[in-house]
Amino acid sequence: MVESAKVENPFFARVWPVVAAHEAESVRALRRENLAGLSGRVLEIGAGSGTNFAYYPDTVTQVVAVEPEPRLVAKARAAAAAAPIPVEVTSVAVEEFSDQDAFDVVVCSLVLCSVHDQVAVLRRLRELLRPGGELRFLEHIASGGGRGRLQRLADATIWPRMLGNCHTHRHTERAIVDAGFEIVESRHEWTLPAWAPLPVSELALGRARRK
C-alpha cells in the first residue's frame, strides 16, 4: 500500500508559478516534446500551476490533472480554463486517486523527484493505465561526478525543504523499470551550462510502456 501524506509546501507554491512563467525555452521545448503525439485520455500528476496544459495536442480527449498542493490548485484550474483541450484538476494526491476508467497515457513532468516513494507511486500509476498504456516522463535525474556530489549535498540539506520535497539525486529511470514499465526510449538533456552551480540541470526525457 502506498503511504500518503498531506502536501503543504507554501514557499514552493509561491515560488514555482514565477519560475514556471519564466522557464527557459529549452525546458519548454522538452515539455512540448514530452506531450507530442498524445491522444485519448491522459492522467497528469503533479500538475503544479498547469504549465503543461497549453502544450497538449487536440488529439487528447481529456486530461485529468492531479495537484495536491492546495495553493497551486487554483492556479492550475485557471490554466485549465484556458487550455485547448478539456482539463479536470483534482486536489486528491496520486496515492489516493482512483478512477473507474483506465487512462491511455500518464504524464510526469518534474514531479517524480518530489514523491516520497518513487517505485510505489509508479506502481500505482501503472495500475491506472490500460494494458499497453504509455508513461511519458520529463524528470530530474541523478548525475555523476561533481554534480552528483552537489545533488547529494543539496538533498541532505535545504533543497527538499524549500522546493516542495524535490530530491535531485534520484535514479528515476531505474525506478520506472522496477515499477513494472518497459522503457521504450529515453535520453538525457542538459538545460543549463555544465558549470552552473545548480543540482537540477540534467533531465531525462522518455516514454515507457506498461508491460
From TrEMBL:
The keyword Methyltransferase applies. InterPro entries: SAM-dependent_MTases_sf, Thiol_S-MT. Transmembrane segments: none annotated. One of its GO terms (molecular function) is methyltransferase activity. Keywords: Methyltransferase, Transferase. It holds the Pfam family Methyltransf_23. One of its GO terms (biological process) is methylation. This is Phosphatidylethanolamine N-methyltransferase.
